Amino acid sequence: MKAAFFKEHGGSDKILYDDYRDPVPDAGEVVVRVRACALNQVDMLLLDGRFPPPEGLPHVNGCEVTGTVETAGGAVRGLARGQRVIIFPGFSCNHCEYCLRGERTVCLRYGYLGAHKDGGYAELVKVPVANVLPLSEAVTFEAGAALPLAMLTAWHALVAQADVRPGQTVLVQAAGSGVGSAAIQIARLCGARVMTTVGSDDKIQLAHDLGAEQVVNYRQRDFVEEAKRWTGKRGVDVVVEHIGGETFERSIYALGRLGVLVTIGSHDTHWGRLDLRHVYSKNLRVLGTNLGSILELQQVLEHVVAGRLSPVVDRTFPLAEARAAVQYVLDRKNKGKVLLIP
Ligand SMILES: [Zn+2]
Fold first, then answer.
1. Which of 28, 131, 137, 205 has the fewest CB atoms within 10 Å of its CB?
2. How many angstroms separate the alpha carbon of residue 167 from the centre of ligand 1?
3. Residues near 257 by Cβ (< 8 Å), separated by ≥ 6?
4. DSSP state of 33
């Protein structure tokens, strides 16, 4: 098959588009013909070596995949060749203490499609049958590929972790990102009021269209001051943070008393300072979260089918132009998701 892969770490110029080993399914695995694969910030960490692929190089990125069933291992039942599917990207062991508690996202042997295994920047991808869900005809392959990581992570962060309630105020960092554009919509669906940040004025209208009441260009104005102004000095109830560094540090200052910061990524840097005085004196909570459950992905799919959530797809690139697609995301030009189409 053809794939876009890399043999050494670096920038987008390290991505090669060439022949790659065909995936061969074990008894309980399915090979899916990729119809759309979304890019994610974690792809950039895998590429530049800040998060080296655990199985080594060469490596194929791509966590968010929709496609059709191509072949299946001997133990797989109930899937027909050509069936439309969406892939749940998290792998868990089913045996450790956390899996037995039902908390699979903190499995001791947790892994991601496209990180711990070769992913969807390819014509074919291999996954355990437990990770395969049917994809309704009502959801395009392109829209579906924006759901399994970005939309699901934002859903789990806001609904399950932060427990957002009607009337609360939520600050979502980076409206133009996949996670940001999803989080704004989900917070609105929960009945919350939303403020968000953008890095360029051309993303302001998108943020309003998604349901944000207040939009701040963080390069021009201080989002902490704006959050205080927007809430009448009170501070917001919830912050969705996925940037790290100074954005993480300052997001704490935007919170009101009893506020919650959910951290779901570290796209600029893995590090962030924390002013502990704010945490204990205001009784803040800092919650880490990653991905969500397969059940939650099904719930997200139902909301998408019903039109209550709409994944934002900025543009698609042919798989052969993966290098250009990655550079487009690295340059932060995207408003929503960027997809590769084999
Ligand atoms: Zn486990």
1. 137
2. 37
3. 235, 282, 283, 284
4. E
Percent of the chain at pLDDT above 90? 93
Question: Residue 309 and residue 293: Cα distance in Å, rounded?
Answer: 18
Residue 336 pLDDT = 84
pLDDT at 177: 87
- Residues 70 and 81: their CA atoms lie apart, in Å, by 5
pLDDT digits (tens, 9 = 90+) for 112-150: 999 999 999 999 999 999 999 999 999 999 999 999 998
Check if the beta carbon of residue 114 is closer than 8 Å to that of residue 61. Answer: yes
Tell the burial category of 310 from Cβ atoms under 10 Å away from its Cβ (0-12, 13-18, 19+): middle
Residue 18, strand partner residues: 3
CA dihedral 2, 332, 180, 312 (to 10 degrees): -60
Question: From ligand 1's centre to the CA of 90, what distance in Å?
Answer: 11
The string of pLDDT tens digits covering residues 233-259 is 999 999 999 999 999 999 999 999 999
Sign of CA dihedral 210, 211, 215, 219: negative
User: Which residues, at least 6 apart from 276, have a Cβ–Cβ distance to it below 8 Å?
Assistant: none
Per DSSP bridges, beta strands 29-38 and 124-128 are: antiparallel
Q: How far apart are CA 188 and CA 195, in angstroms?
A: 11
